[in-house]
Amino acid sequence: MWLRLFLAAFALLVFPSPSPAAETRSQDPGQAILVLDASGSMWGQVDGRTKVEIARESIARLMEAWDPDIELGLMAYGHRRKSDCSDIELVLPVSRHPPDTVVDAVNRLSAKGKTPLCAAVQQAAEALRYTENRATVILVSDGIETCGMDPCAVAEELEQAGVAFTAHVIGFDLQKEELESLRCLAEGTGGLFIEAKDAAGLTEALTAVEEEVAAAPPAPKVAPATRMAAVLTEGMDPIEDQEINWLVTDPEKGEDGSYALIKKARGTHPRIRLATGTYRVQAMTSLVTVETEIQVDAEQPSEHVVELNAGRVTLLGYLKEGGERLTKNIRWHLYANQGGQPNGLTSTNFHEPVFTLPAGTYEAVLELGLARASVPLVLGPGDILEKEVFLNAGQVRLHAVLQEGTPPLEKHVSWYLTTSEPNVQGEYETVDHNSYHSPLFTLGAGTHRFLVTSGAATKVFTVDIEPDRLMEKAVSLEAGQVTLIAVDKANGEPLQKARWTITRATPDSKGLYEKVTYSSYHTPTFTLHGGPYRVVVEHAGAASTAMIEVHVGERKEIRIGVQASP
Q: What is the CATH number for 373?
């Protein structure tokens, strides 16, 4: 199937074959580049053979019948280095190569690396001068993009800027969920997406493409398209490292009050083909939107530079001044100061965010755990700043123990960070709650009040936090644990479906026993402060009462007999 796939795909462009569309076949099919996947996954097997072997053999057979007058280029990715998204090489430039030259070049490829297929298709398009000539790229890949680019966005960019650009995508041995990520690269440029799994489906698709390619009219050579660029302010270099969205519209609003869309593009230097005239251009980053009018001369297109009237700031976070930079588990919030009121713009958990912002005043807020700090920002047009934010915070990891020196409890522990002072009702309000048995709290420097609970045992304590210091603190509950088991008084067998109530050991002034805790589990484990307790166990209408003694730091099991129903 792989052999048929290669032969058929190339035949569409370079081997005229008898068909109903032969009389209308273009006399100028343009040039083609084969973009070959040489990533590590090509060592995978299909029907007991590696995909690398299949590719080499298929191309060798293809070149046996190759027309020496047809110009072909070969590009490969992932064949030189592991984990390198820039590993893309035009192995053979577009030319009339002897067949052995192509075969030898393919045989020298060694599958190793990642799958930067989008960047490879872009580079192949550039090599074909796709903005001036008809250009066709045939991508053969056994995997999806692994270098962060969007195939749909790349297709849109190439389709808009190209004279007659087409990408045919051949997906070999792809999983079902991988197909859609590559389909739009072909369909977005008017090409065919071929899934190399089903022979009948492949034949049908290749027939449709052959008819389309055969009937394609020659593409005229044209001048390069108008290029767009954006700068922070006049006189600065164009922005190269940030995604920019572009909208080109009519210069005036229509009757419905909106601007009619003419073109849209994405990238730092998109090429947009426009007729001579006046246009409204809108350039947008995530936080900056500007618009301007441009005059286009289609006979002499040039680069139009849009000023964003913006600055750029990089944010860096630290626990304290002079400490190590924070690189994980942090969150940034950005606010614009408008009329003295903060207006939330965006948030991110990237550890070193870079924001491009309209000239103005802002506030950047850094959060880590419950620690929070902010800095004001004043940006002028063209400013490129780096701002450090210091949390003046430290960390404490808490553990609950029954008694000092005993192992930490590993479940059924709750921690409450409270206000330092009670409210007007005399209550301490909860600031944060955590049910992990050994939580890590990040807090501003100072004294913090906590409440920890496990079962019926509680403890209030304070922690003194020091900047950029990690503390370990074991909190003694001064408690013990008892596991209660209800048994039949007659035979000592454990009973199911028991209900338990634990009260104070002695009644109050009204003769009532204050309830401490309860459970409906038949063999519950209670965590209790040291001392005597009264236990009531109920089973099938019968009840028994017993007195128990809990010792701090001790874990024990107590059996309580119940008169079971006959």
A: 2.60.40.1120
